[in-house]
Amino acid sequence: MRSRYRNLNRIAALDPERDHLEIYQISVGLEFPWDYTRALEFALFRTYCVPSISRLLAATGEFENRPQKRYDDTSLLMAEIAAHGYDSPRGREALRVVNRAHGRYAITNDDMLYVLSTFIYDPIAWLGKYGWRPLHDHERLAAFHYYRAVGTRMGIRDIPATYENYAAFKHDYESRHFVYSDTNRRIGNYTVGLFAAWFPSFLRPAVRLGVRGMLDEPMLRAFGFDPAPAWVGASAAAGLRARAAALRLAPPRRRSVLGISKRNRTYPGYPTGYIPANLGAPAPREDLPAEHLRRA
């Protein structure tokens, strides 16, 4: 059992500000890879509760026509940055792809700040409920410092200087901007459909119900979704806690899986033969309303 916590001991010995990349890589690639993947899926899903975000996504048509590719592009680019480091050649290339995609559209700085915040705090909240061990304070702070560094390189302005202030920004932003809109519902339905498509057809109705069972009340209201029966969420939570209990008895992972996607649906050969420049959304449609385009 002592070896089960050797990564935690390493994390405790590091400085969460100076060594934030190493700590984040240990947490995501060795300690909680499956949980981070699921939590970041729901973190992105959460951002679609904001009408200004969902309107742009609906206008581009990417979620309607290529939801799997958009999901894969986002997850792979973020994994490239984390696996190789934001200042590595491969990390800088991934950031250029991300910045080029965002730079085409009229996205407010506050919306960018909010999306970035979900990458920090939503996985922390997930792991607080379903992680096989509690997060160390260094892991929480390292996630904050890591994404603050990434956000700076994305040109996001006014990123709060402390973990607590950024968490307060996220809470306040959601309280003001989580309101129902038709585009929220459309993008929400496309995303639930994407999640369900990963399973055999006979399981898809149960998956759709299960996803609704995992959403909190503000998300349900913003999407206009009917809540699932209470037993659905309770069953999902019990299953995740049972998984966590079993993982406590498992040996520690010896090789990081960060940046390794064995079952990528859009790019089945990834990472072999691919570079970050191969990823990313196409140029905006010619008929996209001017309100969504960044002015030169």
UniProtKB/TrEMBL annotation:
Keyword rRNA processing among UniProt keywords: no
Swiss-Prot/TrEMBL keywords: Oxidoreductase
Enzyme Commission code(s) on record: 1.-.-.-
Uppermost EC category: oxidoreductase
A Pfam family per the record: MPAB_Lcp_cat
Domain ER-bound oxygenase mpaB/mpaB'/Rubber oxygenase catalytic, chain residue ranges per copy: 59-242
GO molecular function: oxidoreductase activity
Domain of life: Bacteria
Name recorded for this polypeptide: Oxygenase MpaB family protein
Source organism (scientific name): Paractinoplanes globisporus
